Amino acid sequence: MKILIIEDEPSLRELMCRELQRENHVVEVAAGYQEADAKLAGYSYDCILLDLMLPDGDGLTLLEEIKAQGRRENVIIISARDSIEDKVAGLELGADDYLPKPFHLMELSARIRSVARRNRGGERGVRIGNVYLEPEEQRVTVAGEPLLLLKKEFRILAYFMQRPNHLVDKTLLAEAVWGDHADQLDSFDFVYGQIKNLRRKLQEAQADIEIKAVYGFGYKLVVTA
Hints:
Low-confidence stretches: none
């Protein structure tokens, strides 16, 4: 999962980032309204952790802009403003959850998983054909048999399985898997290499899905059975 943390307090931001990266999420951070707005203008995310008290703007205003743009990201508000008015305002504007500060990092992780499950209709995983992917357990099976993937291969497959039959540009894929570090890649050879290995493993496991190259555009996941 690709997560954007919008939090101005450096120590808390670092703690959250480290914990979520330990759970194999791709994590990016923004320390204020303008930095967050710039990241949202250029990138997409699966989940946004939004502090309301930002040094250069109001988090509720940013939330309103996110929802007005019709973006698909889940938003969890994390704030020391624990009044019922702020909770109601945030939820009315479209936030998926509200976690008051201080909070335990284990609870934050549980809230993120809960919001993701709600978006999957309560299912713990995603099934396409004979392939079943469980994001929380970082596990994939093909026809009930485990499929061993490297961390980046898993992230790529998870990204595609959440967007079946959607054309995915290689730049967006790199950003989803490498996060901020995607800008530092000299070429897309790493992306090509990871996809080549993933496609081979799916084929060898006789998976009912395939990541097909669309010349000049990118890739898309299709069902072959």
